[in-house]
Write a structure and sequence with these properties.
By secondary structure, the protein is an all-alpha fold. The protein is built from 14 helices and no strands.
């Protein structure tokens, strides 16, 4: 439950940014933020991947009553995150413009995306550290601290966004600087909670040793998860490209607003990921395989029951929700249509997410990666290219309707 609440406020945080971009700046600004989504996902991919790698090794260490070994994994994971932060920050700073332009962004939307990512690039070290801190706490059973940090972030963002955008008139820069400041405060809070957590009593400076072997273990577990999320980035890149090509930037803005609604609906599945990984990880370390199977089945059943509420909301109030972000008719029309198709595939995400979390906890991270590469990149590109050439923008919707369920078959079978 704490993780669910945390993800609710984390998504609402993004909803606030989307609202101010569409309602208080422009439709082009909303489209610009949508174009940056693949780049933002790359940052999240590395943070989540490195944290997943540490968590997959840290949780079994706790389960096998070897916390000092867990601390060694944390330290070596921190080394990897520090190196990754520098490289990734430079990449986002120098290559955001050509990547956004490659998706078809032009004029105001292109500049909005560039302005936003320049500031976000500076926040990469803070963002990646927050993933690691949350993993350390959740592996010890503390999901409340994550919840509290995102609740604080949400409240601060609600104050800083209107201050920077309406009062100071900073436009998209205001959104980015608000995110930067809020992330610093959130990380300071999480650092304090880690310092107060039970694992600290086992801390000793002698454990802080640069261990290449442990770093390779973290990479082995975490890098496939990183690449798995990068395939999500590639998926959004492809979707942005074809929507802009066949329907224009208003449609991109509408899809961006719909993404936020979809994220809000999917919050329970994300919370299930954290709970599933923590429970299965510790039971895997303790070799309790019956409890692993039980956790997997219950997570899927619970996720499907909860997500049904979101499906009803999408079908009943899709148009009104999109208009809340941007009431431009073209934006609302495309966003509404996207949500209706989303309602038909959103249950597939429950099975996919729980299956992925299970395989990562069982230290089988390559399976989700291979499936995701084919489903999100190769098959998606082939399907959209073929169907849009034949049916125009309708072909885009046919593609996103079919492919998630193909992925479900393979994910469920392997899990």
């Amino acid at each position: 439950m704490p993780a669910s609440i945390g993800f609710i406020f984390g998504t609402l945080y993004n909803v606030v940014d989307t609202y101010f971009a569409g309602s208080h700046i422009s439709s082009e600004a909303l489209a610009g933020l949508t174009y940056t989504f693949p780049l933002y996902l790359i940052m999240m991919a590395f943070g989540n991947g490195m944290a997943t790698g540490v968590g997959a090794l840290f949780a079994p260490a706790l389960g096998s009553a070897n916390p000092k070994k867990g601390i060694k994994y944390i330290y070596n994971g921190l080394i990897l995150i520090s190196i990754t932060s520098i490289l990734l920050g430079c990449f986002l700073w120098f290559f955001s413009k050509p990547i956004i332009a490659l998706m078809g962004a032009e004029g105001i939307a292109l500049q909005a995306g560039i302005d936003y990512m320049k500031i976000i690039a500076l926040a990469v070290p803070i963002s990646l550290l927050s993933f690691l801190l949350n993993t350390i706490l959740s592996a010890q059973g503390d999901t409340k601290s994550f919840r509290n940090s995102v609740m604080i972030a949400f409240v601060l963002n609600c104050a800083l966004d209107p201050l920077f955008i309406i009062y100071f008139d900073w436009g998209v820069f205001g959104l980015a600087w608000a995110t930067f400041i809020v992330q610093i405060i959130s990380v300071l809070y999480l650092l304090y909670k880690v310092y107060k957590s039970p694992i600290i009593k086992y801390f000793n400076k002698s454990l802080l040793v640069n261990n290449i072997s442990m770093q390779m273990e973290v990479l082995q577990q975490g890098f496939p998860s990183t690449l798995n999320m990068i395939t999500m980035s590639g998926q959004i890149f492809i979707m942005n490209f074809y929507v802009q090509k066949y329907a224009g930037e208003s449609a991109v803005a509408g899809m961006g607003a719909a993404f936020r609604v979809e994220q809000l609906i999917l919050i329970p599945t994300l919370a299930l990921n954290i709970a599933t990984m923590a429970i299965i990880g510790q039971n895997f370390g303790a070799r309790k395989f019956d409890r692993i199977k039980e956790t997997f089945k219950k997570a899927i059943i619970l996720g499907c029951l909860v997500i049904g509420v979101g499906v009803v909301m999408i079908l009943s109030f899709g148009e009104q929700i999109i208009a809340f972000f941007d009431d431009t008719p073209a934006v609302v029309a495309f966003g509404k249509r996207y949500l209706h198709f989303s309602a038909a595939i959103i249950l597939s995400y429950v099975i996919t997410n729980v299956s992925t979390a299970t395989m990562q906890s069982l230290q089988r991270p390559m399976i989700p990666l291979v499936i995701s590469v084919f489903r999100r990149i190769i098959f998606l590109f082939i399907a959209i290219e073929f169907l849009t050439n034949k049916f125009g923008i309708d072909g885009f919707f046919y593609s996103i309707l079919i492919l998630p369920w193909i992925g479900v078959f393979f994910f469920a079978w392997f899990a």
